[in-house]
Amino acid sequence: MAEDALPERLDVIAVAPHPDDLEILCGGTLAKLVKQGYKVGIFDLTSGEPTPRGSLETRKAEAEAARAALGVPVRVNVDLPNRVLMDGPEARYALATQFRKYRPNIVIVAAGRTPGASPDHLQGGLIGEAARFYSQLTKWNDRFAGTEPYRVPHLVYVPFPFEAEQRSWHSQFVVDISDTIDQKVAAVRAYGSQFDPARFARVEHMIRSTNGFHGARCGYLYGELFALPTPVGAPDLVQVVCGSKGALAPVVLPAASGVVSGNG
Ligand SMILES: [Zn+2]
Fold first, then answer.
1. For the chain, which domains are there?
2. I need a surface site. Which of 35, 52, 55, 74 has the fewest CB within 10 A?
3. Does pTM surpass 0.85?
4. How far is the CA of 246 from the centre of ligand 1 (A)?
5. Cα gap 28→41, rounded to integer Å
6. 19 C-alpha to ligand 1 centroid (Å)
7. How far does residue 131's CA lie from ligand 1's centre (Å)?
């Protein structure tokens, strides 16, 4: 497929099984990336249907309203089957084809085993990792709708907060979403078929609590947690260390000395 026939490149692609997963996991960061001028796409692996109170039409409209709330320009449904989503060659081809079309610098993959919630979440993470690798494979263009190989430089995990295991990632970081938490909550509220007012109140509480906790660890009002399969590379120690604000409510020393120092 000729390059000029492809859609515009995206800086960041975020992938998860169901419309509403990414809003809950990292909607604040996606909205923030857009504000920062990056080109962002949300890639839902499935329609999310069937669900008890949803339909294909309502879910599609809700996903569109959530996209608009976050200001994310591109939202693609990869059209894999909900409830029976399984990592396997066909699913990997389908997602890798999207990576080859949109040629992102960073792919964010929702990751985690979520007993009590959909098993699609674990499978989606596996598909995301594998598709990132498959995207670069040569001599198989026919399996990827005629697209050319593309190597995705960076993979980032966004962990489900209700994961079964406590994992030790090689590195974690928190994005300050204090300025976009309200956009995030509005995007989740768009899924009225999934969250009636009573359920939404509990989900909002969970979001604000989780993001409040992660943010507080780094001195932000709200933050979203991410992880990397590698240690964080630091071209500049000071830039990395000073990205955190430190304590959210630092002790302010009496100014009698005229000097307020950070610690001690
Ligand atoms: Zn889900």
1. 3-257 (3.40.50.10320)
2. 52
3. yes
4. 33
5. 14
6. 7
7. 19
Closest alpha carbon to 87 in 118, 121, 115: 121
Q: How far is the CA of 103 from the centre of ligand 1 (A)?
A: 25
Q: Which residues of 247-261 are buried (b: 16+ CB within 10 A; e: fewer)?
A: eeeeeeeeeeeeeee
pLDDT at 100 over 90: yes
* pLDDT attached to residue 264: 45
Instruction: Compute the distance from residue 160 Cα to the ligand 1 centre, in Å.
Output: 9
151-164 pLDDT per residue, tens:
999 999 999 998 99
- Give residue 197 CA to ligand 1 midpoint distance, Å: 19
Res 261 pLDDT > 70:
no
pLDDT at 246: 85
* Distance of alpha carbon 196 from the chain centroid: 24
To which H or E segment does residue 216 belong?
helix 197-217
Pull the structure tokens for residue 153.
């430089």
